[in-house]
Amino acid sequence: MVKMNLPNTMIIGASKSATTSLYDLLKNHDNIFAPSFKEPHFFNFDDNFSKGLDWYSKTYFSRVRKEHIILDCTPTYLYSKNTPERIFNSLGNNMKFIVVVRNPVDRAYSHFLHSKRDGLEKLKFSEALENESSRLIEAQNNNDFLSELRFSYIAQGMYFNMLSNYLEFYSMDNFLILDFDYDIKNDFTSGLRKISKFLNLNISSINTDFHSNKSSKARFPFLKNILKSKGFFRRMAKKIVFSTQTRQRLKNKINRLNEKEHSFSKLSHELKSSLMRRYFNEDISLLESLINEQKNWNN
Predict the structure, then answer these.
(1) Looking at residue 212, what is its pLDDT?
(2) Angle, CA 224 vertex, CA 223 and CA 225 arms, to 5°
(3) Residue 189: its pLDDT value, please?
(4) Residues 205, 79 share a domain
(5) pLDDT at 223
(6) What is the SS3 assignment for 231?
(7) Domain region containing 238
(8) Sign of torsion, CA 193 199 201 206?
(9) Could you report the per-residue pLDDT of 154-171, keeping only the tens digit for each?
(10) What is the pLDDT of residues 48-107, one digit of tens each?
(11) What are phi and psi of 132, to 5 degrees?
(12) Residue 91 falls within a domain, yes or no?
């Protein structure tokens, strides 16, 4: 029997918390293997999971050689409720998880701007938050997981709630919790030290002078719409390439070339404080107790 190459480390979230920058950094280490196609979505997309571990291994990890760390970076794994059990049953109890937590209001607003940029969000930010519950119920009733991911601005910032799903199968020793501001944005060397210790791997020599996924908007909105139109890109790309992964990489590359940096208006301190009190304070308090670390997100 041919041995399957499977991940032993995962970056599972949170989305919109510099996980792409972290992935881009780690994949350049000689002793870390990360597939060129980020976010396999194997454990939280039913269609992918139904294809089995052999497909997962061959599709994403066939080029593994002697790397010590094999990485799957899919930030929405943290949000997906059935994912922890699937990972545990498929890969066992030794998995290492890296989680980046961010001020949940900032994370929600960044998530909202991403949906807005992609032409998926028509509401104002406050309206989107007020309508989130009904939107998510509708998406779940329609078995529309993509819409659920797109509009779960509040839900994907409930870190304690999401981690609790994993702690039914894993202990906190399996997790490294990084802070977006302290460990990534303001002092990446701090994050690197923690990752090095967690993975038992020296990664201090990695170049950190970059940032992925800066705020942007489409240079040509019509091209963004074409790429997102259901079935169009798939039909056209199938004429010249064959694998799903190759089509997705091509699509991602065109999207990146079509983007330009753009500064969006910031939320006022008063509004951020109000939203924090309304939606997140209770979850933050529980998270602080869980990780034994005080967060200063209300300041």
Answers:
(1) 53
(2) 90
(3) 85
(4) yes
(5) 45
(6) coil
(7) 216-262
(8) negative
(9) 999 999 999 999 999 999
(10) 999 999 999 999 999 999 999 999 999 999 999 999 999 999 999 999 999 999 999 999
(11) -60, -50
(12) yes
Does residue 31 belong to any structural domain of this protein?
Answer: yes
DSSP element (H, E) containing 19: helix 19-26
The answer to whether the CB of 235 falls within 8 A of the CB of 132 is no
CB atoms within 10 A of CB 178: 22
Question: Do residues 198 and 222 share a domain?
Answer: no
Q: Which two tokens stand for residue 174?
A: 């399996």
What is the DSSP secondary-structure string of 187-205? -HHHHHHHHHHHHT---TT
Query: Tell me, what's the pLDDT at 142?
Result: 97
State which residues of the chain have pLDDT below 70.
1-2, 204-205, 207-263, 299
Based on the domain organization, do 171 and 257 belong to the same domain? no
Query: 218 in the Ramachandran plot: left (φ > 0), alpha (ψ -120 to 50) or beta?
Result: beta
Instruction: Decide if 194 contacts 96 (C-beta within 8 A).
Output: no
202 and 235 both lie in a single domain: no
Residues 176 and 249 placed together within one structural domain of the fold = no
Distances (CA, A) of 273 to 85, 269, 278, 280: 35, 6, 9, 10
Which of 206-209's residues contact partners 24+ apart within 8 Å by CB, and which partners? 206/25, 206/26, 206/28, 206/29, 207/25, 207/28, 208/25
Q: Are residues 88 and 223 in the same domain?
A: no
Are 166 and 97 in contact by the 8 Å Cβ rule? The answer is yes
- The answer to whether residue 79 is domain-embedded is yes
CA–CA separation, 134 and 146 (whole Å): 15
Alpha-carbon span 102 to 108, nearest angstrom = 10
Query: Which single residue is written with the structure tokens 């998995």?
Result: 95
Determine the Cα–Cα distance for residues 32 and 200; give it in Å rounded to an integer: 12
Could you give the number of structural domains in the chain? Answer: 2
Q: Are residues 81 and 56 in the same domain?
A: yes
**Which residue's structure tokens are 């990890």?**
61
Q: Which of 170, 180, 158 is nearest to 286 (CA)?
A: 158
